[in-house]
Amino acid sequence: MTQVTLDDWAAMPLNRAEVAGGVLVVAPFLDTRHQLAVTRLAYWLDERLTGLTAVPAVELLLAEQPLTIRVPDVLVSSSTQLNVRRVSPSDVRLVIEVLSEGTVRTDRVTKFSEYAEVGIEHYWIVDLEDPASMTTYRLIDGEYENFGEHTGKVSLDFDGTPLTLDLDALTTRHAAAPLTALVSGKDGMS
Question: What is the CATH number of the domain that holds 154?
């Protein structure tokens, strides 16, 4: 099996794929519930986090030799220059993976260790199975420590910004509450 190089990867059309240890890994097709949750989460975080940018599905270059590129569901970057196809771990403050059929082991084991190895400070895993839940991890001395397992409405602080997330609203079409009910930040709304 021939390993994929960064030049090979850059020449490929955009698709649902990652590279792990030089090996091309095709991601499973995602259901609409997953895609909507990712879009909502990225948008709402981006609107609330001052000085940070939250975006879905941006390439994260973890290693060049052997090539490892992951495409997290959502990443939060300190860079304001996100008009790029790929970012480096030094620009990433938070990675969020939303579990889907076929990615559970990769998200909970493989990516968990890969993100820790490159020093990404925060890692959140969202599970959309009823009831929707989220586990938050923070990097302490090179290893992720569990900072909470949450369901329903979650109040937490991220990078100095208090956030209130309604995890159930991630999967509820046109939630009855206004947008600010899902994620509240420094604007005082909760």
Answer: 3.90.1570.10
Q: Does residue 24 sit within a domain?
A: no
In a domain, 95, yes or no: yes
**Total structural domains in the chain?**
1
Print the SS3 string covering 77-137. Answer: ECCCCCCCCEECHHHEEEEEEECCCCCHHHHHHHHHHHHHHCCCCEEEEEECCCCCEEEEE
pLDDT of residue 174: 53
Residue 51 identity: G
Neighbouring residues of 7: CB distance < 8 A, sequence distance ≥ 6: none
Domain annotation covers residue 56: yes
Which DSSP category does 178 fall into? -
The percentage of the chain sitting over the pLDDT mark of 90, rounded to a whole number, equals 60
Residue numbers of the domain that contains 169:
29-61+69-184
Given this model, what pLDDT does residue 117 score?
97
Cβ atoms 135, 124 nearer than 8 A: yes
Tokens of 103: 């990615």
| Inter-residue contact 44 to 68 (CB < 8 Å) | no
Distance CA 106, CA 112 (A): 8
